[in-house]
Design goal:
NADH Oxidase, alpha+beta, 4 strands
Length: 184
């Protein structure tokens, strides 16, 4: 698949089938992440792959509770029984980085770069992905992090879901680049 097709065709998917993603596909997606640019060649990303439906639902439910506490204007929306966090995806991938105040900003940026590679690789397999930013709020809950396998000296950087989309994604639109200044 051509790069422009992946870049322009990839969409955030919020509706998945129950079909499992193969281990080989997950491994290839993880490997694609490791080929991302990284500051000082640190490669700070570490991955937690969750395929257990009950644990994914637990993450979703706990995230809704934390969002209600931390973002009162969204509280009503997050009181639903529906899975509005992980959207019934069959895989939840947590990209984690070591807790280190000196490197935390760069670790986050490196993990985000890895995520884009992973999203494009997943799309090339016909799979869907969606960044789950609210799940990062679980960093404030060490007991929950322990339960989902995040070591004590690590924090969530980029959580995302992965699976087989229920429907073909539509074509997206983007604005032209908004250039603040072009210096020659």
């Amino acid at each position: 698949m051509e790069l422009d097709v992946c870049i322009k065709g990839r969409r955030s998917v919020r509706c998945y089938t129950k079909e499992p993603v193969s281990k080989e596909q997950i491994e290839a997606i993880l490997e694609a992440g490791t080929w991302a640019p990284t500051g000082m060649a640190r490669e700070p990303w570490r991955f937690i792959v969750i395929e257990d439906e009950k644990l994914i639902n637990y993450v979703s439910d706990e995230t809704k509770v934390v969002v209600q506490q931390m973002m009162p204007p969204l509280a009503e929306r997050f009181k639903t029984k529906e899975d509005i966090i992980c959207y019934n995806a069959t895989v939840l991938i947590l990209i984690c980085g070591e807790k280190d105040p000196q490197w935390s900003s760069l670790n986050l940026l490196d993990c985000v770069l890895a995520t884009q590679n992973m999203f494009l690789k997943a799309y090339s397999f016909g799979l869907g992905t969606c960044y789950m930013g609210f799940v990062s709020y679980l960093n404030s809950k060490p007991d929950i992090l322990r339960k989902i396998g995040v070591p004590e000296n690590y924090e969530l950087m980029v959580p995302f879901i992965l699976g087989h989309p229920k429907a073909k994604q539509g074509v997206g639109k983007r604005k032209k680049p908004n250039i603040l200044k072009w210096i020659k």
